[in-house]
Write a structure and sequence with these properties.
Elements: E1 16-20, H1 49-61, E2 66-70, H2 80-87, E3 95-100, H3 105-114, E4 119-123, H4 129-136, H5 141-154, E5 159-165, H6 174-183, E6 186-192, H7 209-216, E7 222-224, E8 235-239, E9 245-249, E10 262-265, E11 270-272, E12 281-282, H8 284-288, H9 293-304, H10 325-328
Parallel strand pairs: 1-2, 1-10, 2-3, 3-4, 4-5, 5-6, 6-9
Antiparallel strand pairs: 7-8, 8-9, 10-11, 11-12
Helix pairs in contact: 1-9, 3-5
Bound molecules: S-adenosylmethionine and iron/sulfur cluster.
The site of iron/sulfur cluster has 13 residues, from helix 10.
């Protein structure tokens, strides 16, 4: 197998793999997994850790160098810390990160750190415990906040706080969230709500980056930060004198498809080349039928050729994305 063969027909080099290791979650965020709507995958449909690690190794041999572990909530899956340890021994990965809702962080932060993980994204849409309960269905704000302090103390870097900006839900707190970047080394990342699945947050909650920027600009000038090579689609800024950064992920208002370097593997082993499309290729079936690494690599290469040039959310004839964010991994 050849390195750097993951180049799609639009000449985008794919080097970033997002792994959803479970579709389960201990929260029910209104924009992702509202109560009662989403059936759980049967246990046997979920890739084992051995299967995931094998697929990661094959992807790395094709040019993947950056891996993010996500879910569902990755920290609810049994054995996750040993899995992370194993993942960080794979040669060829220069950057491993995890995205978590932070509920189990405080108790397990050392185990994540000891597994070799240094980069972490924590989802936090509000600083108000009551609103946290309304958004997530669980009264866990203080636990998450404790977890954020714990990752700061132990020295994770970067620590990114993901904030899905929603009109009439947390738009009165965007300035307070942005302020956190002054006294803390946090990267506050404002994410536009994406219409994926059948969540309880909809178009009327949509709040786009220009409006968010206009609000938080009252705190001072946003100075652009140059993107590093492995950076994702976030537009990065910093307030003068701030320890941390501000980022905007604008899938709707400024879509970044032309630079998209991502592949996703879902918890059930589906390879997806675009978050905002239901097109996927089943890797689990061939893997369990005994395909060799080379055969699986060829399937991955073929699927990469199907990566669309961009999403079609604004096209009136396009079908909405029916898969849920919790099963794809965000
Ligand atoms: N459970 C973990 C968490 O919440 O961080 C990881 C999985 S979650 C699907 C990954 C990210 O996707 C989170 O930061 C979440 O806020 C974001 N997300 C979920 N649904 C979204 C949506 N409809 N639009 C934009 N971001 C979304
Ligand atoms: Fe769970 Fe994360 Fe989805 Fe919230 S965003 S429901 S924490 S998977």
């Amino acid at each position: 197998m050849q390195a750097y063969s993951l180049i799609d027909r639009y000449n985008r080099r794919l080097n970033y793999l997002r792994l959803s290791i479970t579709d389960r979650c201990n929260l029910r965020c209104i924009y992702c997994m509202p109560k009662g709507l989403i059936p759980k995958l049967p246990h046997e449909e979920i890739l084992t850790y051995e299967e995931i690690l094998r697929l990661v190794r094959i992807n790395v041999s094709l040019g993947i160098s950056k891996v993010r572990v996500t879910g569902g909530e990755p920290l609810v899956r049994k054995g996750v810390f040993d899995f992370l340890k194993e993942l960080s021994t794979i040669e060829g990965i220069s950057d491993i990160s995890i995205t978590t809702n932070g509920v189990y962080l405080k108790d397990h932060v050392h185990r994540i750190y000891d597994a070799g993980i240094r980069r972490i994204n924590i989802s936090l849409d509000t600083l108000n415990p009551l609103k946290y309960l309304k958004i997530t269905g669980q009264d866990k704000f203080h636990r998450v906040w404790g977890g954020i302090q714990a990752v700061k103390e132990i020295g994770f870097k970067p620590i990114k706080l993901n904030v899905v900006a929603l009109r009439a839900v947390n738009d009165d707190e965007l300035i307070d969230m942005a302020k956190l970047s002054f006294e803390n080394p946090f990267h506050i990342r404002f994410i536009e709500h994406m219409p994926v699945g059948t969540p309880g947050a909809s178009a009327e909650h949509s709040l786009l980056t220009p409006e968010i920027k206009a609000q938080i600009c009252s705190l001072g000038e946003l100075v652009p930060v140059k993107n590093a090579i492995n950076d994702g689609p976030a537009e990065r800024y910093k307030f003068k004198g701030a320890q941390g950064e501000i980022g905007f992920i604008s899938a709707l208002s400024r879509h970044f498809c032309h630079t998209c370097n991502r592949l996703r593997i879902t918890a059930s082993g589906q390879l997806r080349t675009c978050l905002l499309s239901d097109d996927q290729f089943d890797l689990k079936g061939p893997l369990r039928k005994g395909c060799t690494d080379t055969e699986l690599a060829n399937m991955i290469l073929k699927t990469v050729c199907r990566k669309p040039s961009g999403h079609h959310l604004f096209c009136s004839e396009s079908a909405p994305v029916s898969s849920h964010m919790s099963s794809i991994g965000g």
